[in-house]
Amino acid sequence: MIREIDFGYPWYLSYGHLVITALALAFWLAGRTRKWSKAPMIAIGAVLLWSVAAFFVARFAFNANGRSALPTETFLASGTGRVLDMGAGTGRSTLMVLEARPKTTVVALDLFAESYQRHFGDGPSGEQRLLSNLQAAGMEQRVEIQTGDMRKLPFEAATFDAVVSAYAIDHLGREGIAASLGEAERVLKPGGEFLLMVVTKEFWMTFTFGPLLLHGGPRSPEQWAGLLEAAEFQVVEQGTRPMTLYVLARKP
Q1: Confidence grade of residue 148 (pLDDT, cut at 50, 70, 90)
Q2: Is the pLDDT reported for residue 157 higher than 90?
Q3: Predicted TM-score of the model (pTM)
Q4: Alpha helices, DSSP H only, in 11-125?
Q5: pLDDT of residue 203
Q6: Which residues form the domain of 43?
Q7: Distances (CA, A) of 27 to 19, 56, 145, 185, 232
Q8: Residue 98 domain-assigned?
Q9: Residue 154 forms part of a structural domain
């Protein structure tokens, strides 16, 4: 049997707007049939146009359940090394690194606790979901799955060549963010790189989801850069992708 990759994000992130589209279209057709006045027809038409546009953004730009591309080719340009994925979830960011850097190995770390269940629902254990996706991609031999807290990493200092955290640290409060960044700096080797990816508040996020996906913590690139510098990182590069801010930093 061929296994399929399933990152486990709820269906409404990719297809929820289609429900609104169907309802708006039904009201619009009813209004045409019953000859409603212009004002409600314009309002319904606006909702219909928004839901269609938002669906395309959610499904093809954000694409929560699709494979993720590395946001910058500068990250781990050597193409080799041992990488820690902090808050690996169901493996989307782990596969991102493995596919972009085929000579790396990854330690995929997550608590697999209550927050995990809230995001991915009930079902097989978190470790099993992650392993299943790695097996479906044929990359399980290059990954070690580790249960642990990113605020207190179970590794010795200077253990990794690079660390990545995608849409995980921004779930924490300010103290948790500071602790996690400090831990990332601790376990990196000198010269090691840290790639941070977080959900950002920008036009397309607000247009598509409103407040639905906004995590806690900082919002602006300047705030994240400041936190990384406070953790003794040097910021190398930062930029945006659809609904994502990324910051690449290096340990001196």
Answers
A1: very high
A2: yes
A3: 0.86
A4: 12-34, 38-56, 92-100, 114-120
A5: 76
A6: 12-62
A7: 13, 21, 50, 55, 56
A8: yes
A9: yes
Burial 18-56 (b: 16+ CB within 10 A, else e): bebbeebbebbeebeeeeeeeeeeeebeebbebbeebbe
Q: In terms of domains, do 58 and 84 share one?
A: no
Same-domain check for residues 39 and 90: no
Q: How many whole angstroms separate alpha carbon 113 and alpha carbon 120?
A: 11
- Same-domain pairing of 153 and 209: yes
pLDDT by residue (tens digit) across 112-136?
866 666 666 555 566 888 998 999 9
Same domain, 114 and 229: yes
Same domain, 21 and 109: no
Distance (Å, whole) CA 163 – CA 107: 9
Is 2 inside a domain boundary?
no
Do 136 and 246 lie in one domain? The reply is yes
3-state DSSP percent of the chain in helix, strand and coil, to 5 = 45, 20, 35
Mean pLDDT of 183-200: 95
State yes or no: pLDDT of 62 exceeds 70. yes
Mutual orientation of helices 174-187 and 221-230 as an angle, nearest 10°?
50
Residue 2, pLDDT score: 46
- pLDDT averaged over the chain? 89
Distance (Å, rounded) from C-alpha 132 to C-alpha 2? 11
